[in-house]
Amino acid sequence: MAPESASGNPRRDGASVLRDLSVVTVLLLASFGVHALAVGGGPMAGLEDLYRRAYYVPILYAAWAFGVRGGMTVAIVASVACLAHTLVDPAVVGGGGSGTLVEVALYLSLGGLFGALRDLEGRRAEDLRLVSVQLEEAYRKLEERAIQLVHIQDYTQSILRSITSGVVTVGPDGSVATANPAAEGMIGLREFEIVPRQLSGLFRDDGGLGRDLGKILSGRLPKVAREITMTTLAGRTLHLKVAASRMRAVGGRILGAVVTFEDLSEVRALTAQLIRADRLAAMGELTAGVAHEVRNPLGVIRASVQLIEDGTAAPGRRIEALNVIKQEIDRLDRVIKALLDFGRPTAPVMAPVDLAGVLADVVLFTQRFADRSDVQIVVRLPEGLPKVFGDADQLKQVFLNLVTNGVQMMGEVGGSIAIEGVEDDGFVTVRVTDDGPGIAPEDITKVFDPFYSRREDGTGLGLTIVHRIIDEHDGRIGVRSTLGSGATFTVTLPAARPDRAETEDGPWRGES
Predict the structure, then answer these.
(1) N or C: which end of the chain has fewer CB within 10 A?
(2) What does DSSP say about strands 375-380 and 427-434: parallel, antiparallel, or unpaired?
């Protein structure tokens, strides 16, 4: 369809316009000639009323070809011609020419109305053309978007097929919607066998995953992540790191959840080998440390016994030797007791613990000892600090050891020990900072090793036991120090949660 002009008619080339003008001109001339034959006593006299209607043809054609402007223009020309013929016809002049005026009105009405209808039809056609163009453009964009979505879907599927972690999506009812090849390999079933079964029904033992997945789908947990042991229907045991999070629509409606599986079987095997090697190395170091700690007192005791056996020794020297023997026996007793505490630890009784109360008891126990060394202990804990999940007595032992070590390191110089606490994303961190001489860079990695001590009368097992207690509480302990500027021990423990007792396989690192 040709484009429309401002009047609503199609925009045409010059040849088309010239052709229509020629047709209109020919029709006007023909109508004029026919009319001329019917007036002034011509051969067709008496048929004037019929032949002057011949002007309808060029008027209608002009209105169709050029719209209202063309129709009115030709109607005016036809009216002038009709009036001119009428003026030279004595019969019309004598009769007043009322019929001619009616005819002229019909010319103008016909040209205007038909031309207006033609313009209206042209505008509608133009509107339809524009709508058609817009629809074609919208369809093209929609087609491009559909192609892009197909490419994105193919790309996403390629990623899911390629990654080594298992990825499973479940619907709001807990039924599996999709599973990638890695998940198929771990579960031991093909995707068509998995979909749409319940995820927990794909395992003999799901390690509690189904229970916690239900919490996610019900809105009680947004996400969870932990290491669990699962048994497939075929009897295969899997050590997996599982992470699950809910899927939401744009409006907030829960669509389901995404569950990822990472196989830790090989990692666990390698870790077990490393732990075994590390234990053997630690046992060697422990044996050497025990031999050193026992041999020195035994050597002193042997020398003292020889002195007592010597009959020529003065009585005062013998009494002094006996006192030395008692001191060395006490030293051996301390070493053996520390070894028993380290080798046969008491299982912690886990419960929510208020760290403020624990630290208050620690300050009370160490205050007199700190006062003798002119050491000030300052505790700064924020209000509303969450409780931690642990054994109160063992945690007292941890902080008692850290504070005592700090006081001993400052000696008689004095100073201060600052104990600060802070909550951080489900964990509680306590920092114990002293003003002592600090720890040398080459020694800072050894502070938690057995029998490492910078004091002559130290057993070197205190911080080793502290590290073990913190490990059993699923926590972390670290040390930071600059030589000459003191040391900071940082203890991080999981905050207590109401649902913690429900989890049998270890703490979830999720949000409740």
Answers:
(1) N
(2) unpaired
How many angstroms separate the CA atoms of 355 and 381, rounded? 9
Per DSSP bridges, beta strands 166-170 and 254-263 are: antiparallel
Say whether pLDDT at 510 is over 50: no
Cβ contacts of 406 within 8 Å, gap of 6 or more: 375, 417, 432, 434, 436, 487
Alpha carbons 341 and 236: distance in angstroms, whole number: 39
Confidence of residue 43 (pLDDT cuts 50, 70, 90): low
Cβ–Cβ under 8 Å, residues 279 and 287: no
Give the list of residues 6+ apart from residue 240 with CB closer than 8 angstroms, or none.
186, 207, 227, 228, 229, 230, 261, 262, 263, 264
The 10 Å Cβ neighbour count of residue 171 is 15
Cβ pair 244, 212 in contact under 8 A:
yes
* pLDDT of res. 508: 36
Q: What is the pLDDT of residues 265-276, one digit of tens each?
A: 777 777 667 666
Cα 473 to Cα 489: distance, rounded to the nearest angstrom: 17
Q: Is the dihedral of CA 196, 198, 200, 201 positive or negative?
A: negative
Give dist(CA 187, CA 166) in Å, integer.
9
> What are the Cα distances from residue 460, in Å, to 182, 225, 457, 465?
48, 37, 9, 10
Task: Give CA angle at 107 (103, 111), nearest 5°.
Answer: 165
Would the CA dihedral through 410, 412, 416, 421 be positive or negative? positive
Burial letters for 393-421: b for 16+ Cβ neighbours within 10 Å, e otherwise?
ebbbbbbbbbbbbbbbbbeeeebbbbbbb
Residue 94 has pLDDT above 50, yes or no: no
DSSP letter string over 217-265? HTTS-SEEEEEEEEEETTS-EEEEEEEEEEEE-TTS-EEEEEEEEEE-H
Q: Classify 445 as helix, strand or coil.
A: coil
Helices 14-37 + 56-87 axis angle, to 10: 40
At 344, the pLDDT band (50, 70, 90 cuts) reads low
- What is the Cβ-side half-sphere exposure of residue 199, based on CA atoms within 13 angstroms? 35
Separation in Å, CA 249 to CA 168, 178, 255, 356, 473: 18, 18, 6, 43, 39
pTM of the model: 0.40
Strand, coil or helix: what is 367?
helix
**SS3 (DSSP) at 340:** helix
Query: Is residue 235 a contact partner of residue 244, using CB atoms and an 8 Å limit?
Result: no
User: What's the mean pLDDT when you consider all of the chain?
Assistant: 77
The radius of gyration of the chain's CA atoms, rounded to the nearest angstrom, is 52
Angstrom distances, CA of residue 14 to CA of 122, 163, 504: 19, 67, 90
Residue at 177: amino acid letter: A
What letter would DSSP give residue 346? Answer: P
